[in-house]
Write a structure and sequence with these properties.
The protein is of the alpha+beta class. It binds sulfanyl-(tricuprio-$l^{4}-sulfanyl)copper (K7E) and dinuclear copper ion (CUA).
Length: 765
């Protein structure tokens, strides 16, 4: 697209007026007319008013949703439910260049298992980092159930920085859950396997050789990374550990992990054995694992762990002897275990039981202190009787799964999978307060900061597995349905249905938007994936191509509207590395970079440096271009990669026929003078107000002057050419001066608009 000419613009406006007139004066429709035409009730209008975020306004909360099988994270706003971003995590994501530039490939390579590239993930549970049990908005963690991995996302730039592979599991589900100060990120195994897992072990040795476990990944907040060496695990029985939660307040230092199939049943329907589903739910109870992680960490420091696959594991024998591991029977096939905001209770919901069980941390501690156990499990772990640990059970409905909390004391919400309902109830008094139907089959639910010590109430999102009859059909595979529910009153009200078309999200967390402080730009030359200066970075004017044998390394830059260099010549068979730095300081001035055939793409946000690597194994002509519509001359942001055949010799240099004359040159000079007048007036305005109080504007102004600072060199060139009567080069270099001016003016106008909108004040000169 080129800029519209005046004539086209006039035509478009004229056409617009004609359309409005023929459609019968839409603007004169009343609210009642619209309600009638669109068949809307008063309730619909109320829901719309509660969720609609007008242009220019923003959401109160930001949600981070697991992207399920997409291996990504979905970011959306609440209450508008507008999607803001997809974050590539376990899966390549081309828009962000994730998995296509060298820096992000390195992050993904952290997720290789036994040298195998795994380019998808089954993300289940995101967790925001916490300080003193409250969301601090600094980091996000998410697990991959299919391949036992955990990822770290930095919320300064919403980029994935690290993927770690669990060294002893083959699947995991009870992650990511953080301890109160994000000392550790908890991850529990799901399907039991031998922990070394190097050799074949037949299923008939399930009870003896197969194991579960819980891993505590140590988080180094300063580095923003998991410290693999300081992380450890606990060996657990092969009970199919499920969801976990960390204690808080009085229960800080402890963690809780559910299990299902404590029967340790091994199926084999094809051999005539009853299937897993029958064998795994035969007993009335499974086990809640109660673990003192703080003491466990001390034991590891004292050298009491065993190294398995190079990783510290506290064996069951040690855990029992040291008194850090206990079991509590819980109604069969439980799913969620959710610690209350005050840290006093653990709410467990069993899929096959109509009750939620509220366990008391105080009672559990009393039983441990008195050494009051009803017995031991087959591995010798002390078992606390259910009645000695239980505070109460509350009947909620069919298929309770997960629980979240309100800002109002004692108020909890539990999802009912089979009933397709959300139950609101009071866990102090043990009574049901309200129920609302959802469409259909809810898994997790989520309230604002509702798993922290400081829930914010207001909204609840129901994450429904089925979306029957809610959306326009799009084939047999339906989108998922996130339903927004108003919980600010006694009765719950359904506000909005949001289709999620990327995978099956299992869990979502939402944080107050004001707690997030994302950056707008990087320090020039930053490798965003490790936050360090990138060795491939160059500044304007320093661009170069370095050849060492058959290795060609390009050090290039991008700024509106050119890529430097504009031609890259290599020989067939060369190993090519292209480093690119985006020199822009202006907000949202991202450039993309793509070369056809070689499967490379980069997203280079202001200040970022990336490198792209490929082998130029086929001679030919390969255009490269910027993939973001960054400016009026974006299409001209282009160049050629020329892969020359063996032994090629250039015959002559590129020559272009002269087409400009003195009149053209004079026209250019006039254009430059006019544009300068615009720049002067904008600069006059900006410097007349307190623009220095607005860091974003300061960046734009710096950027603008950076552009204008390049004009004198081009001016010298056009003047020198004009002196010699070389009108061709004089005209083109004058055009280049104007290009710098246009970019300056563009930034200046943006700065001016920003200042006006933010009520900048006049300053004394
Ligand atoms: Cu219930 Cu993986 Cu938390 Cu799905 S999980 S719903
Ligand atoms: Cu840069 Cu388009």
């Amino acid at each position: 697209m080129k800029l519209f000419s005046k004539r086209t613009t006039t035509l478009i406006i004229a056409a617009g007026i004609g359309l409005a007139a023929s459609a019968g004066a839409w603007s004169e429709e009343s609210l009642q007319d619209v309600m009638k035409r669109r068949d809307l009730s008063q309730q619909d209008l109320m829901a719309a008013a509660k969720t609609y975020v007008p242009t220019g306004k923003r959401d109160e909360f930001v949600a981070f949703s697991s992207g399920g099988q997409s291996g990504q994270v979905i970011v959306y706003g609440i209450p508008s439910m507008r999607i803001l971003k997809y974050i590539g995590v376990f899966t390549p994501e081309p828009w962000q260049g994730y998995g296509f530039d060298e820096e992000s490939k390195k992050v993904l390579a952290g997720g290789k298992i036994d040298g195998k590239n795994i380019t998808w993930g089954d993300t289940h549970h995101p967790a925001v980092s916490e300080t003193l049990g409250k969301y601090d908005g600094q980091f996000l963690f998410i697990n991959d159930k299919a391949n036992p991995r955990l990822a770290v996302i930095d919320l300064r730039d919403f980029e994935t920085k690290q993927i770690v592979v669990n060294p002893i599991y083959k699947s995991e589900h009870g992650g990511a859950f953080v301890t109160s100060n994000t000392e550790y990120i908890i991850e529990a195994a799901q399907y039991a396997t031998p922990l070394e897992n190097k050799k074949f072990v037949p299923l008939d040795q399930f009870n003896e050789k197969y194991r579960g476990g819980v891993t505590y990944w140590k988080f180094d907040r300063k580095a923003g990374l998991i410290d693999v060496k300081k992380s450890f695990s606990l060996e657990l029985p092969p009970y199919s550990q499920d969801l976990s939660d960390a204690g808080k307040g009085p229960s800080d230092g402890w963690s809780f992990t559910n299990s299902f199939c404590a029967e340790r049943y091994v199926g084999g329907i094809e051999k005539g054995r009853p299937p897993y589903e029958a064998g795994c739910s035969a007993k009335d109870t499974d086990y809640l694992h109660v673990i003192n992680w703080r003491k466990a960490a001390e034991l590891v420091a004292q050298g009491k762990a065993k190294k398995i696959n190079g990783h510290d594991v506290i064996m069951m024998e040690t855990a029992i002897k040291e008194g850090i591991l206990f079991l509590v029977p819980e109604p069969k096939s439980p799913h969620g275990v959710d610690v209350t905001p005050d840290g006093k209770f653990m709410v467990v919901a069993g899929k096959l039981d109509t009750h939620v069980s509220v366990f008391s941390f105080e009672k559990i501690m009393a039983a441990i202190k008195a050494q009051k156990f009803e017995g031991k499990d087959p591995y010798g772990i002390p078992v606390i009787a259910m009645k000695d640990a239980l505070d109460k059970q509350v009947q909620l409905g069919l298929g309770p799964l997960h629980t979240q909390y309100d800002s109002k004391p004692c108020v909890a919400y539990t999802s009912l999978y089979v009933d397709s309902q959300v139950a609101k109830w009071n866990y102090c008094e043990g009574k049901v307060l309200d129920k609302i139907s959802v469409h259909y089959n809810i898994g997790h639910l989520m309230t604002m900061e509702g798993d922290s010590m400081d829930p914010k109430g207001r909204y609840l999102v129901a994450l429904n597995k089925l979306a029957i009859d809610r959306f326009t059909p799009v084939g047999p595979l339906h989108p998922q349905n996130h339903q927004l529910i108003d919980i600010s009153n006694d009765k719950m009200h359904l506000l909005y249905d949001m289709p999620i078309p990327l995978g099956e999200p299992h869990y979502v967390v939402a944080i107050e938007a004001s707690k997030l402080k994302p950056a707008v730009r990087y320090k020039v030359g930053t490798n965003s994936r490790n936050d360090k200066p990138h060795p491939g970075m160059v500044r304007a004017g320093e661009e170069k191509v370095v050849r060492k044998g058959s290795n060609v390394e390009v050090f290039g830059t991008l700024i509106r509207s050119h890529i430097t260099p504009e031609t890259i010549e290599v020989n067939v068979g060369d190993e090519v590395t292209i480093n690119l730095t985006n020199l822009e300081r202006a907000e949202d001035e991202t450039h993309g970079f793509a070369i056809d055939t070689y499967n490379v793409h980069a997203s280079i946000e202001p200040g970022k440096t990336v490198s792209l690597k490929f082998k130029a194994d086929k001679e030919g002509v390969y255009p490269y271009y910027c993939t973001e519509f960054c400016s009026a001359l974006h299409l001209e942001m282009q160049g050629y990669l020329l892969v020359k055949p063996k032994g090629y010799k250039a015959v002559r240099a590129v020559e272009q026929k002269a087409i400009y004359n003195k009149a053209d040159y004079d026209k250019q000079l006039k254009k430059i003078a006019d544009t300068q007048a615009v720049i002067d007036s904008v600069v006059g305005y900006i410097t007349s107000v307190n623009y220095k109080d607005f860091p974003d504007v300061v960046e734009m102004v710096n950027d603008a002057f950076d552009q204008l600072g390049k004009a004198p060199a081009a001016k010298a060139k056009h003047e020198a050419a004009a002196k010699k009567g070389d009108w061709q080069n004089a005209t083109l270099w004058a055009e280049q001066v104007w290009q710098y001016q246009v970019k300056t003016a563009d930034l200046g106008l943006r700065a001016k608009t920003y200042l006006e909108q933010h009520n900048a004040q006049k300053v004394a000169k």
